Every structure is written in C-alpha cells, then in structure tokens.
Amino acid sequence: MNDHPFDTAIALTHEPPQHWLGRTSDDYWNMVSPYGGVTAGVMMKAMLDHPERRGTPLSFTLNFLAPIDAGDFVIDTELVRANRNSQHWSIRLSQGGKVLALAIAICAVRRDTWSQTEATRPDVPPAESCPVAPPRKPTGFLQRYEFRIVRGKPFAVNEDSLSHVWVADNPPRPLDFPSLTALCDSFLPRIFLRRPDFVPIGTVSINIYFHAGEDALSRQGTAPLLAVAQAQAFSDGHFDHHGHVWSTDGTLLATTQQLVWYKE
Fold this sequence. Notes:
By secondary structure, this protein is mostly beta strands. The protein has one domain: Porin. The chain is 12% helix and 38% strand. The protein has helices at 5-9, 36-49, 177-183, 214-220, and strands at residues 13-15, 19-23, 56-64, 72-82, 86-95, 98-108, 145-151, 163-169, 201-210, 225-230, 234-235, 238-246, 252-262. β1 and β2 form a beta hairpin.
C-alpha cells in the first residue's frame, strides 16, 4: 500500500454496491474541517473505484453543504445515467446520516479528434528557478503542498487578484485524477491577494473541467503544476475565481471555477 499522506487520506473501504467508508486525516486538516481539495479528491476516488465506472473524468462539481467533522464518513456513489460514451454520477459524503458534501460528475471515453487550446499559458520562470514559499501554518494541509509563487503576494495589497504559482504535492507524488482534483483547490484565496487582513473563509462550490486524459497526467509525473487564477468579483460576503492548471510541457490539464464565502 502506498504510504503517501494523500493516499492515506483518500483511502476507502468498499461496502457493495455503492457505499464507501473513509476517515478524515490530520495531515489535510484546515481551519474547521478537512481541506476542501482532499474532500473533493476522496469523492473523486470513490467514483473512479466504482466497478461500473467507464472512461475518465470530464467534469466534477462539488457543493459543500456543511463542515465535515473529524472522524469517519460515508460516501455513496450512484450511476444516474449512462450511454455509449458517457456516464453521469451522483456522489454524496455524509456523517451521522447527514449529507455534508454533494457532487455530480461526468466520465467519458476520450476519442482522438481535432483539438485546439485557445487559452494561453503565462510566460513564467521554470519551477526550479523559483524559491519555495514557507508554509503559512506549522500543521495541516499547507504542509502537504509545495508552493513557488511567481505572481501575487499573499496578505498584501496587490493591484489585482491574478496569481501564478507552481504547486506540487509534498512529498512528491505522481499525478492522477484524485490528486489533480485536490490540486484544483490549492489556489490562494483571492481575498488574501487584495487585502493584508485575515478573515475566515470557506469554499461553497467548486467546479472542474478536465481537458486531458491519463496519458497527459502520466507524463507530468511528480513535477510541479502551474496554477493560474483570478477573481471576477467580491460582493455580499462571497468571491469567485476562475483558474487554469497547466502541466510543465504546456498542456492545459484543467480549468476550474470556485465560489468562496468570507466573513466580514
């Protein structure tokens, strides 16, 4: 068994046909509940491990209904509908019979077709030439990622919320869909790029589109990913961001949108 902290955190026991048992990990703890990325990652893994799953993820949308307590949880996976090329899944995480996180996802068989990427990868220095940012906390999920900040200083008054950051698992781990899903929640909170003050925050919803298949993830290996994100608006106690995740060879692996609550 792989003893990487991420694999331990997303480890599941299958109770056929559609129940999965897991447990939260101190290694990926956030302020009041698990880091949202690891919750997304373990729910993705439950779908991927289902014996009826075909193809690879195309989209994944997760809504956080309430904080998840430390301890055991249950994930239910349901294949809602399938056709020749795609599957639609519902995934629910609960504790004590109460649903705390709810996701819908699409898997599909990828086909060799005409392809074109219109998004432009920023021209940034290679990861190895950028210093590693020291963790902002001595414990929890921030210890489990290595950040190399190229643009966007946290807890400062930047001119905008645009950030370019090289990010990788710590310790290194080969990229796969559960870890890519988790890394899509590793962006710096946009509000901390516009103001120097800390305020409590919490992710409300995260949406991910996967633009590459398993071959591209295998080529990436353990190398850092380039995470690019910017907010569109801060209002009424919520802000958003739109993000791009690029491989080191310039492949657009995923795009993501997120809605975050903040306390003022």
